[in-house]
Amino acid sequence: MRNYNIKSLLIVAFPLLWAACADLEDYSSAYDVEKPGDVSKTDYLNSFGLLTDHIDVTANPNFVLALATDYATLSDNANLGSILSSNFQGVSINTGFAHAECMDENNALDYTVATNIVNYAMDNGTLVHAGSLCQHTKQNYQYLNALIADVIIPGNERSGKVLVHDFEDLEIGTSFKMTGGGEAIVANDPDGQSGKVLHIGTTSTGSKAAYSIPVFNVTLPEGVTLGDCIAFVMDFKTTSTNGLFGNGMRMKINDGPDIKYGNASSFGCSSGKWNRGGVALDFATANLSEEQKKLTTFTIAAGTHSGEAIADVDNIYITWKQVEEGETIIKTPAEKKEILLKQLKAYIAGMMEVAATKITRWDIASCPMSDIDGCMLRSASNEANAASSFYWPDYLGENYVQDIVAMVRAAYAEYAEEGSGELQLFVDEYGLEQPGSRKLERLLQMMTKWEADGITKIDGIGTQMHLEYSLDANQQKRNEESVAATLTKLAATGKLIRISDLNFTVVQANGIEVSESKVNFEQQIALSRYYNYVLNKYFELIPAAQRAGITLHTVVGTLGLWDKDFNRQVIYGGVYNGLAGKPN
């Protein structure tokens, strides 16, 4: 094996970077200058014990170190399961418990996934923090909205058709007025199929209808107006291609303008063949005025608008339809609240029946606060993507958490067994540590209101802490100060405090995030230091009796404690030392 000179790049670069986050005395004793850098790093990381080594359960009776994942990933990944069982006390699972996730395709309650999670926890002796029982996302919003929608009872519908002409009661040779030149006269159907028809466009002198159509008198039945009419329908046949194309079919009401339609061919007509009922000129195209809609008697001119039209028409009628105004039964706010409370109670009771024997920690409300400091709770009135979410307080009122807490505690008392453990209910929120935001203050104000009845008890607060490590030193200092200030304010509540979804991104000095694939080793060291800082501050500022735990969101990957092959990374050391109360 080649011996490396103490001045080589390996000795200069790697230890200096590592010293930024590691205990130098421990590191120097573990580092072998004769080994390649990656081997030495691996040996050093493997010298750490398990994450749970420094967790004193006696001094921290409520503390749970957990990893965040979903059931599918956990059940399918043996390596992740091994990490969970050896390095963590529990798991935080945010899938499988939400309202939409517990309903099947028929909108019936289905707790299959939740049951699987409970069984996994029982089989593996794993503590589970579950959530969330009420939030704006992962709700079966289409079903819920349908339940509280006003009831629309459609009005009665009646329809019919008015015969304009079948020409059977008219004498052969009877003529009809035309809008221009040419004639329209009653004649026998040359094909012998249709009795009497109206023949348009030829006379004894052989003249044709040039852009001229016949005019018909129309009287509608009592109670029916032109506004009720749907279409002017006729049997139509051209004796040749004359009239099949041209400028198209036309209709004219009284002395109004021409209403234009496609040519006869577009209605399925062909030369020399009857198209029975195939020409239907819809009145919607007419764009009737309000005065026209009231008409009960009028004239209609209709036919093919061609320079040399020769055609036969028969069996002319108008279709109509009337729909009486329906009834709308408006649901009052009180009725909507009652409906939703019933749904929520059934969902929570079913969940406790499945899970109360194993799961004692629940997020009862997740992300309830608006991101807008000028607002309090999230609402359809202040959210950008309101259509695909469901905002319970819009219907249950701002004290909706009182109802949820009461339901959960009652159902837990019913279904928990002796030895199940003490129920602990949390409100979970993100962005509480954001510099300049008042979200934490607003959350504490709401919690004061929720507990003002003297009955509602919220045991703890979860702060997700999706943190940014800034490559701008001044900004990073502000970030760290904001974390410390947030933990100080949370400690002052006297409630259980958990960091519920701790994860980090690296942000350039200009505020642009560094993609995970481009995070380098030096930046991983910086993340390790930031992890260590947050954990040390948590144990420093949160009293032991209030420490409900820390959940790590990213445990595998470039920004995690293990790489994709489940080898420890530099961040592991920062977390390990942080749990031990040791700075990097």
From TrEMBL:
Signal peptide: 1-19
Entry superkingdom: Bacteria
GO biological process: one example: polysaccharide catabolic process
One Gene Ontology MF term: hydrolase activity, hydrolyzing O-glycosyl compounds
Gene3D superfamilies: Glycosidases (3.20.20.80)
Alphabetized UniProt keyword annotations: Carbohydrate metabolism, Hydrolase, Polysaccharide degradation, Signal
Ranges where the GH10 domain occurs: 286-579
UniProt keyword annotation of Signal present: yes
InterPro entries hit by this protein: GH (IPR017853), GH10_dom (IPR001000)
Name by which UniProt lists this protein: GH10 domain-containing protein
Organism: Bacteroides xylanisolvens
